[in-house]
Amino acid sequence: MRTNDAQMLVLCTLADGPLHGYAINTAIEKLSGQRLGAGSLYGALARLEAKGLVEHLEGQGRRRPVRLTRQGRAVLEREAQSMARVTEHVFETAEPDRIGYLDRLAATDIVRSYQQVMLQTLDTRAGLSVLDLGCGPGTNLAALARAVGPTGTVTGVDISTEMVERARQRTAGLPGVDVRLGDVHALPLPDGSADRARADRTLQHVEDPAQALAEIHRVLRPGGRVVMGEPDWDSLAIDFPRLEISRAYTRHITDRIVRNGVIGRELPRLALAAGFTVADVIPVTSVFRDARAADDVLGLRRNTDRAVAAGYLAAQDAQEWLAHLAHGPFFAAVTLYVVVAEVERDGATGTTGGL
After folding, report:
1. Residues 6 or more apart from 46 whose CB is under 8 A from it?
2. What is the three-class DSSP state of 45?
3. Helix, coil or strand: residue 183
4. What count of other Cβ atoms lies within 10 Å of the Cβ of residue 57?
5. Residue partners of 270: CB distance under 8 A and separation at least 6
6. Mean of the per-residue pLDDT values for the chain?
7. Largest Cα–Cα distance of the chain, in whole Å?
8. How far is CA 210 from the centre of its chain?
9. Where do the Methyltransferase type domain residues begin and end (predicted)?
10. CATH number assigned to the domain with residue range 98-124+197-342, chosen from the 4 options 3.40.50, 1.20.120, 3.30.70, 2.60.40
11. What are the residues whose beta carbons fall under 8 Å from the beta carbon of 105, sequence distance 6 or more?
12. What distance in Å separates the CA atoms of residue 279 and residue 353, rounded to the nearest whole number?
């Protein structure tokens, strides 16, 4: 709804039944985060009554309850339909193609920024053997191949046949690049066969992160290094006047959408348990000021609909939430952690390293 419009705010608050003036203002504060001044509230009520959109019921003085007329409810319904069309225009409703989504994500400044941190901390040099675990459509394989040069090797591993086929197409002709179908829980690689490994937003999806880390430890040589970039979805903060709605949306993402929703914060502990030394943990916070740009990453409309279906959000709250995100000043942020872990040169279990 147009939450900056006093008359529309009043109509919204009356959707569930009659209220008197003080209760209307309390409901407006809950909806928009601000109370109307007495003059603005009663001026809006007077204009709505003159238009035939609200009417006063029996009562005493300003304590008389106000309710929507049939005409007022029709206006409110038309506004809701209009806002729904607008939010559909702003936010994607269809599930995107998986490869297209990953390519689009890789082109954003936000992803490029933290991937540059990952590349720097990976410390890839000529002649090294590098693994890209969960390589997807091969977005990063060419850059890794350039880093290791003609004397090095790059192996991409992904569990999806579709992704492996696309990655092979994109790296055809690149010397030293091999793409394999495989599961990070049981990597198709011999013990101690790689110098470096990277996993970018891979462990948030796996069934058993601890087993995956044990496998990564197995295939790295003594002195080898893995760099992992994983989000902590519980850190997702989206500005909305009603904090409980934002929290419910984030809770739904963490609980139901992402298999390992807080893997970012868990990685240092899990890496230590797998036998690694944790050399560094680098937080990278992504900030979104544009609703469309955020939707490219977060799928706001699709995941809001899922939150309603799962009982995390009421339908009316979801409608108000999406309308505000589409029209109000937009702010969202989420933190991803780049974790650098190493295999001890003597094969012994390390301690906390640089933490």
Report:
1. none
2. helix
3. strand
4. 10
5. 209, 210, 213
6. 88
7. 88
8. 23
9. 131-227
10. 3.40.50
11. 111, 296, 297
12. 5
Amino acid at 323: A
Q: What class has domain 6-90?
A: mainly alpha
Other Cβ atoms closer than 10 A to 321: 25
Least confident of 6-15, 269-278, 279-288, 320-329: 6-15
Spatial strand order of the sheet with 332-342 comes to 177-181, 153-158, 129-133, 194-200, 220-238, 332-342, 277-288
DSSP assignment of 223-241: EEEEEEEEEEEEEEEE--S
Torsion of CA 197, 190, 217, 267, to 10 degrees: 60
Q: What is the mean pLDDT of residues 114-140?
A: 96
Domain extent listing, the chain: 6-90, 98-124+197-342
Pick left, alpha or beta for residue 131 (phi over 0 → left; psi -120 to 50 → alpha; otherwise beta). Answer: beta
Per-residue pLDDT tens over the stretch 326-354: 988 999 999 999 999 999 987 454 443 33
> Are β-strands 54-56 and 66-68 bridged in parallel, bridged antiparallel, or unpaired?
antiparallel
Lowest mean pLDDT among 21-25, 187-191, 221-225, 323-327: 21-25
Amino acid (one-letter) located at 163: M
Q: Are 307 and 245 in contact (CB under 8 A)?
A: no
What is the end-to-end Cα distance of the chain in Å, rounded?
47
- Whether residue 52 has pLDDT greater than 80: yes
